[in-house]
Amino acid sequence: MLYHVFMDVTLPRDLPADETARILAREKAYSQDLQRSGKWRHIWRIAGQYANYSVFDVQDHDELHRILSGLPLFDFMDIRVTPLLRHPSAIREDDR
Ligand SMILES: O=C(O)C[C@H]1C=CC(=O)O1
Does the keyword Phosphoprotein apply (predicted)? Predict the structure, then answer.
C-alpha cells in the first residue's frame, strides 16, 4: 500500500548540539536504509520548512506505524498520514 506522509520536525531549543548531531545521523541512516529497501519511495524537502513530504510503499498500516514510530526523530515530529490508491485515470503502470 502507498501512503503519503507529512513530517514536520521541531527540535527542542535546549537539546545539546552533540545529542542533536547523533539523532540526525541515526535518522539519516534509518531513512536511507528504508529508501534502499524500496519502502520509503520518495522524500522531498518542503521549501522553507524543516519538514518533508514522503511516499511509503509498505504492506499495511501496521508496518507503516512500526516504521514511523521507529524514526529517531519520532518524538520531535508532527506526522500526518494519507493512504493513497490508484487513480482511475492514471496511465503509469508501475504505480499501485
Ligand atoms: O529532515 C527531515 O525531513 C526529517 C527526517 C526524515 C528523513 C531524515 O533523514 O530526516
Answer: no
pLDDT for 96 beyond 70: no
Q: Which three cell numbers stand for residue 50?
A: 524543516
Q: Is residue 30 within 8 Å of 75, Cβ to Cβ?
A: no
45 forms bridges with which residues in the sheet? Answer: 52
- Backbone phi and psi for residue 45, each to the nearest 5 degrees, phi listed first: -70, 140
State the Cα–Cα distance between residues 46 and 53, nearest whole angstrom.
7
Collapsing DSSP to helix, strand or coil, 42 comes out as strand
pTM comes to 0.94
CATH code, domain with 9: 3.30.70.1060
C-alpha cell at 88: 482511475
ipTM: 0.97
In a domain, 91, yes or no: no
Ligand 1 pocket test, pick from 5, 43, 68 with the greatest ligand atom count within 8 Å of Cβ, gives 43
